[in-house]
Design brief:
By secondary structure, the chain is of the alpha/beta class. The chain has a single domain, classed as Vaccinia Virus protein VP39 (Rossmann fold), CATH 3.40.50. Helices cover 42% and strands 22% of the residues. It contains nine helices and seven strands; from the N terminus they run H-H-H-E-H-E-H-E-H-E-H-E-H-H-E-E. A seven-stranded mixed sheet has the order 3-2-1-4-5-7-6, with helices on both faces. Helix 4 links the parallel strand 1 and strand 2. Helix 3 runs parallel beside helix 4. It is globular and about 45 Å long.
Length: 221
Amino acid sequence: MATQQGAGEHGRHMDGIYRYQRYIYDITRKYFLLGRDTLLDRMKPPDGGTVLEVGCGTGRNLIQAARRYPGAKFYGFDISTMMLETARANIERAGLSDKITVAEGDATDFESKELFGVDGFDRVFISYSLSMIPPWREAIAQGLQAVKPGGSLHIVDFGQQEKLPGLFKKGLVAWLGKFSVEPRPDLEEELQALARKTGCTLKFERILRDYAHHAVVTKRA
């Protein structure tokens, strides 16, 4: 688990990065945060179900998901107060304040009941956040712990771009580094180990020539 001091430092670091970037985040990121909408399409929460986004940022994914699945209830948290400020404004502007609830929280140490008064979620998803969370393994474990029996954890994030041109990969990695983004080369192995340990099933997919990874970890009912 992250210490309270460590979480506070990370939150301040994220606030520093996105203090101004949050205003253009959704416009610019749509060109390279690929696979997010595929994740939302495949998530398919049950009618009346609950969905949590870990690292909800500007609220873009929650808004899109709430429009896709009007019968579900949505929750999200982020460690950046700046991003949450933007998320709340976006959610209100979209007229979805009654469907989406957001709060400040740490991906490596959170309690669903404490944050939202909810015991667990039918779906939990993490979209391009693991690559920004230093203790990312803990974040995965916490996310899966929040999933109800029979529910699933959905992840999309940067791959290793091994099948893409070298110059493209080099340039992308250098640019991402400016925003403290670091692709996780051991993601599949970590998920396999976690699935074995918890008795879950894992589906792991490399998309767009390994530009991104998409994973679904499903709990037994």
